[in-house]
Every structure is written in C-alpha cells, then in structure tokens.
Amino acid sequence: MLRKIMLAGIVVAFAGGSAFAQDMSCDAKAMGKDGKPLAGAAKTSFMKKCMHDSCAAKAVGSDGKKLAGAAKNSFMKKCEAGG
Q: Is 0.70 surpassed by the pTM of this model?
C-alpha cells in the first residue's frame, strides 16, 4: 500500500514539473535565426504566439474533448494570463 502511495506521489511530481517546464520553454525558445536571444517587439510577438499555441494545446475539457465557444475563450484568457 505504501509503495502505491509513493509511486502516485512520484508520478504527480513529475507531471507537475513537466507542466512547469513547458510554460518556461517559451522564454527559452525565444531565439533568433542567428542564435541570439530575441529582444523588444520581436520577443513580445514570439512570446504571445508561443503562449497562445501552448494554451491551445491544453484547452481540453474533463471529457477529453476540445473546448469551444465561451469555455475555450475563458480558458485561453486565463491560461495566457498565467493563471
């Protein structure tokens, strides 16, 4: 029984860590074609698109179907704000 609880805890820890790492990856990916970090308007535009794409992939309801309409709009707004 204790093994099952510990295994579940480890799985949750890794799942949470990977979700956090995925959110941080937009900042890490913000590189120009020359390999230098983006700055200014280029970085702002890239970050907005990256966050939108990242949130769109997560916009799934509890039944496993993609969200649509007001539910999707609400989710996207909250997700892109970082909440």
A: no
- The residue extents of the domains of the chain are 2-80
Compute the distance between CA of residue 82 and CA of residue 48 in angstroms, rounded to an integer: 12
Instruction: Report whether pLDDT(18) > 50.
Output: no
User: Residue 56: exposed, middle, or buried by beta-carbon count in 10 A (0-12, 13-18, 19+)?
Assistant: middle
For 20, half-sphere exposure in the C-beta direction (CA atoms, 13 angstrom radius) is 6
pLDDT tens-place string over residues 35-58: 999 999 999 999 999 989 989 999
Question: Checking phi first, is residue 59 left (phi over 0); if not, alpha (psi -120 to 50) or beta?
Answer: beta
Q: Which two tokens stand for residue 32?
A: 């120009």
